[in-house]
Structure formats: C-alpha cells, structure tokens
Amino acid sequence: MTPKHDTLIEVKDLSVHFPIKTRKLFRTEVQMLRAVDGVSFDIKRGETVGLVGESGSGKTTVGRAILRAIDPTDGEVIFHRKNKGDIDLAHASEAELRKVRSKMNMAFREGGINVHNLAGDLLRAFRPEMSLVFQDPYSSLNPRMTVRDIIAEPLVASGKFKDRAKIDARVREIAARCKLNLEHLRRFPHAFSGGQRQRICIARALVSKPKFVVCDESVSALDVSIQAEIVNLLKDLQDEMGVSFLFIAHDLSVVAQMSHRVAVLYVGKFVEYAPTEKLFFAPKHPYTHALLSAIPTADPDADFDPIRLKGEIPNPLAAPSGCRFHTRCPFAKDRCKTEAPAWRELDTDHFVACHFAEDFNFDRHQKASQSGPKGAV
Length: 377
Ligand code: SF4
Known about the structure:
Number of strands: 12
Largest sheet: 8 strands, mixed
Number of domains: 2
CATH topology of the largest domain: Rossmann fold
Strand order of the largest sheet: 6-7-8-3-9-10-12-11
CATH class of the largest domain: Alpha Beta
Bound molecules: iron/sulfur cluster
Helix content: 25-40%
Mean pLDDT: 84
CATH superfamily of the largest domain: P-loop containing nucleotide triphosphate hydrolases
Structural class: alpha/beta
C-alpha cells in the first residue's frame, strides 16, 4: 500500500512470533507460535479502522505490537507527520537515535518515525502520541487511586508535566469532554458503574492528546445501551480531537457503527480489508461472508440462517499450509491447500487474500453455496 498524505500509521509486514518450549524425553523442542504473520495496512488521520476475527486470531497482538506494548518479530510501524516527507530511522544506530531525541519535535515535523526503532528515553518521549483503552473497565483501574490521579497518570509518567495546576486543568478538561462531573474526580473507582468506569478509562487514554488510540474490545463488557453511549462518545471525541482509532471487537454490528474501514483477521493473517460499506455489503472473502451471515437482524420475519463453518479456528502453532482458511472453506480447491493466496487490491481500497475472490458475488442475504465458483469441493 502506498502511503497517502493523510496517512497517520503505516504498518508494513508486521509479524509477532512467540517461541514455545515443549519438553520431551531428554530434549526440549522449540515451536514458533505465529500469532501475527505479515500484516500490512494503514490508518488515516481521524479515521477508525475496525479489526475483527474469532478469538485467538491475533487481533489484540496486532494492537499491542503497534503500540510497542510487545516487541514485534519483524516488520515496521511508521508514524507519519502531516504533509511532510518521511524520515526512516530503520537503520539508525543507538547513538544516532540519541541525537534524534533532542530534535524530537524537528523529526516529527519533518516526517515519520518507525515506532519499532524507538527505545529507552526516546520511546518514553514518544508514548503520549499513542494510547490504549482496555476491555475490562473494572480491572484496568487501580482501586487505590482517585479518579483524578488515574486520569493524570499518563501526564505524570511522560515527565513533560511538572506543574500540578497544569495537570489538574488538563484532567478537568478531558473529564468534562468524557461527560464526567468534577466531583467524580475525588472519588475512587468502586463508586462507579461499568459505563462510568469506561469513561474514566477513555479520559485517561486521551488526556495526553494522543494522535492514535487502540480500543481493545472496549465495549464488549458493557450492556447494550451503555455500549451505544460509549460508541457515541468515542465518535464525538474523534470529531473534536481528530484522533484515529484501531477498534478491536468481535461484535460486527458495533464495528459497523464505529469504523470507516474494517480488516478481517484469520489465524494471524489479514484476509480482507475494505471500507465498511463495501465489506459489509459486498464481501469478497468466504470467511468475511460467513462472519457477516452470523449478525442477527432486528426483523423477526427476516431469514436468519448463519453459515456454520466446520471445525474450529486452527492452532497458530500448526497453521494450515496454503490458504489458512482451506480447512473450513466451503469453496476450497486443491490449489488452496498448497499455495498461499497473495494479498492484493481487488478494487479501490478493497484488499483481499483469496485465489478466487473475483468469482464470488456474495450478497449479505445470500447463502455462500449459491454464489461460489463452480467446482468447489
Ligand atoms: Fe477458500 Fe481457496 Fe479462497 Fe482460501 S483461497 S478462501 S480456501 S477459495
């Protein structure tokens, strides 16, 4: 994908592999768990990209690797600055990186930073640019800290804010934007409902005015009515602050409401990435089509007949050869078992990894078997 002038984050061939040691009689074997395997995409300024897939597909690992919460095995994450050329720090030495630190603002003005080459103080200085909202609003708040201290924590940790009055002013500003009362700031987390706690988490994530936030299943633990409130709050904050979101979820209807583009992940690889409308109404990958068929409809008379994929999602320790979806795909042919499909742009901004994507003409309300290519097994 070629970066466009409004690109904020560019992810290139990102891979995260975890070595797993298994003890056998007299020897230790090391297997590689390929949680994420060569993922490429971009996120624009002020855009929300939804990331969907079954449990264990690697969604959270993608989000955390972009934030450098875990170190990737391979690939790059380039953070771009507005309308300027890029600075590639990919091969800079430690000494050169240290020099860049003093010119951090200059570097940002002039171009992009490869997040995966930042370390130590340089990484700490960069942290406020990106943030995370966790799934569980109960366990992600320290019960011994007041709401004021929880929200202020990123400012204090960054070391950029020493003046308490300035910190308090910023905390009050973001709390008001997240629809929290000033009196809430003196209380402890146990005094709040799930929805209010998630507002506190969002305020903490946005207090340092980040350009990019990963929302990792951030509404999954909430009641449906509260989910709608939080989604609306995130959209309002995006309009006001121009922040970009990576919105990780397994509830496709919430992803559709929230996202401008959506990526579908299967066993550590992207299978489809497209603008939300295209992906929801004209998917080109059989896995996307199967996921969409499982979205319940509010119309009691509508035909609801979700596609039931055979078997379970494969273990990433032993990912299938060729197309990773071939063990469950209703349209798999012999070629799919041996040859991995290329990641290609089928239509403007519509990327897919399937040998036969052109042959499919899925409709949201059609069964997969009605529209697959001839000769499917
Ligand atoms: Fe199915 Fe083959 Fe396409 Fe994979 S490449 S999704 S197995 S048809």
